Amino acid sequence: MELPSAVLACGRCLKTDPAYDRSLAAWTYQNPVTGLIQRFKFSGDLAAGRLLAELYAEHLESQLTGPRPELMIPVPLHWRRQWRRGFNQAELIARDLSGTLKIPWQSALQRTRHTPTQSELPARSRTGNVARAFRCRVNQVPKHVALIDDVMTTGATLNECARVVKRHGSQRVDIWVLARA
Asked: How many Å from the N-terminal Cα to the C-terminal Cα in the chain?
């Protein structure tokens, strides 16, 4: 299901300012999108991932006004999780978006701690779970970047990544996700 028109801030963001500046999601995390994302992420259905990225690129083209990010940065997986899965879904989405939107991407972040999967934790535990779990692999990031991931639930992971890239020079961080829970 497609998200309703753009909202300036969600309830959580009104209570506490996030580290990121804007988030863009095409869909709510419901079927049929949920099924496609899960097939892509957990069953290695790369065609489903390409389809989602293609449709998301069309959505972004209609939503992007003003200056575009200079770089897309996929949210990293810990090396153990990526080894087990065989790929990082955020990297594949970034690669596909890059080809369509003509914005470069780079794996500028690294996950330094192996943490429990966020989806297995209650919402109140997620921020602490990812605190200090990421580091920047480069000394300087561009002033305007987009963090790429498949799904945003509480936003804890993306918020922590935004904090890290802002400490390394970014002044504006957009969050681009396929779906939002």
From this structure: 11
Longest dimension (CA), the chain: 40
CA-closest candidate to residue 76, choices 17, 160, 142, 168: 160
pTM for the whole structure: 0.86
d(CA 102, CA 152) in angstroms, rounded, equals 24
**Domain boundary assignment for the chain:** 22-180
> What is the CATH number that goes with domain 22-180?
3.40.50.2020
Per-residue pLDDT tens digits for 117-134: 656 655 565 556 567 789
Structure tokens belonging to residue 2: 């497609």
Give per-residue pLDDT as tens, 159-179.
Answer: 999 999 999 999 999 999 999
Cα(55)–Cα(144) distance, integer angstroms? 23
